[in-house]
Each structure stands twice: as C-alpha cells, then as structure tokens.
C-alpha cells in the first residue's frame, strides 16, 4: 500500500478530531475540563471495548477516573449546546434535500432505582419488560451516510410526579411528563427550526399516528410511519373504494398488487419483501414559501415477509406521483437507526453511562453522538475513489472502523 494513502487516512482522522475539539472548546469554562472532554471523546473512539470511566482514564493516562467523571457530573456545561454542535456537524457532512429523519427509541438496562428515568418498562433492546432507561433518538439518513441528530431521556410519570426523585437526579424544574411521540415531535420541530434539510420522516408504530402526522402535513414533509394492523383507513373521492382496517385491506388485495422490492442492503444482502401500496386521497397543500398549491397523496403501504408472510403497515404522505419504489426506500432507511444503536453500544459506549443524573445522561449521550458524527465524517470523506487493491481496501475500512478486527463498517454490525 502506498505510504501516502495511509498518511492521508491518519491525517483525516487527526484533522476530524482536531476540528470537533475546537468546536466544543467554548462549551467549557475551564481549559482543564475542555481537555478532559477531548480525552473523553478519544476514549469513546478508542479500541477499548468497555468505555467505563476507569478505562477512559487509563487510555488518557490519568491516575483515576475523576476527571472523566467530572465532565459528566461536577462541571457546568450545556449538553443541549453540544447537541446543536452535533447537528451542525452532521448536516455539514451528510446533508441532502431528500434525506430521511428517522425516529426510534432504545433501552439502557440498569440495576437499582436511582438512575434518572429508570423504571420497569418494555424495551426492544431486551425484548421484554425490565428495569431500564429509555432514550428517544432522531437520526439523519441520506445517501452519504447516517448519524444521530437529537436525543431525549424519557421520564415515566413515576418520575415526573415524584419531587424527591427529580431533585435527587437534578431533573429540570419546568420539565413535565411527555410521551415518546411528544419527545419525537419536539425533535422534528427542532430540526425544522434549524433548517435541517430533509424531505421525509420514518418511524415505527409507536410514532405512527396523531400529532406527528398533522405536524408533518403542515410542514409539507413526507412520511412513512408504522401503524397497527387495526388502524383504520378510508379512501376519498377519485380513488378506488377502500375502507377498513389495514389488515382487512391487505387481506383483500389482488395478488397482482404485490411487488417484490428491496428496502436496501443489509449485512446478508438485499432486504427483499413483497410490497403493496394503496392511494387513498389527493389533497391540495399550500407551500409556505410562495403560497402556491401542490397535490399530495395520503396512502397505505404494506410490507410482507417473503419467508413467513408476516405483514407490517405504514401510513404515508407524499407528493402526488411518488413511486412505490421511493416509499420502499424511505421505509428501508429506517433500519439505519437500528444499525446506529448497535454501533453506538458496541463501539462507542452508548450504554456505558455510569452517571445517575439527568444532565449526566444527556452529556454522555451527546458526547457519544459527537463521536458517531466523527465516524460518519471520516467514513464519508474516505469514500472517494475506490482503493486500488483489496489490501488497501481492508486497511481503509479498518481505519474507518477502529476496533473491528475484520475491518467491517461498524454501522453494518446489526443484522436484519
């Protein structure tokens, strides 16, 4: 492998880290805390499989974990300001006008009852009701890559209604109970207010109906949102007569209505399913920019597994004439956030937070989001002309995905 190629990759890593450390420096009043935050970021991106305070401290050459712990706990800095820096970094790296904002949640398994938001609740991470925290996330997904854009810790009513627990974990006084869809809607509005370029929102059935649908329609944003089999749909004037639950409508579809399409590549190749799409209504939508009207279509998208026939249902909203292939691709990008959770937990210590406070959780998670954004930038900038040899390709992948002995892209770690 030519020496220049290796030097270029190392310089890309070095420059990317220098840039983000310079960006976050104003968040910290004391230079020593800024240095510790930089060392924290180095530790998250390092080869250690566990990202505990002791291991990060050892990697930084500190005699103990207190400097690392101070970044999350005792120091005074704004995790939301870091979130905004992450957003700017992600947009600068991955921005595309037809990008998809993906909403989902993940669980953080915990022992005891003291960590902020911990409660016996269902999490897909464990596949059962268990003692855990739940974080709601937004990811930005484009043809250039994907990265986390926003986050919020979900607080059950057992926490928001308990002044003692709130005080012990420093929950902000004005914070009221919010459902997971409400947290997600706040993230959507935050992205729109920051002029983040995206055309679509994708999410599973937790976020599929209600306020999110109405808000996206008002903003002329397309969506592919999961709904339950029992969700009712009705067609309007000038569309084929359709009425009933999503399941009943799918049962009545003609065999010729189904098309086999890929929702994108996974670790085992193309994710092939059978798909059907029913247009339900065409509606005039006024553009906020110039007041002109556009025709948009509300519809029902159905996905059917080839192996076992299991179906999933999605309510859709898109410009009139949008193809089934486009809707399938939007829904397929939803899996990127699952891959991001896997990478965040296995490579970057997303679930290795040792603090118990509200601000500690958001600081830790925001730093992990920044580390992921660095990975996304290095990966995107490294994806220029293809390497000339397989040996070069393997080393390039290893540099882009440190800590993975096979040199695989860590964002492909989750099988579907």
From TrEMBL:
Q: Which PANTHER family match?
A: TRANSPOSASE
Q: Where is the Transposase IS701-like DDE domain?
A: 35-233
List the source organism: Methylobacterium indicum
InterPro entries (UniProt xref): IS701-like (IPR039365), IS701-like_DDE_dom (IPR038721), RNaseH-like_sf (IPR012337)
Q: What name does UniProt use for this protein?
A: Transposase
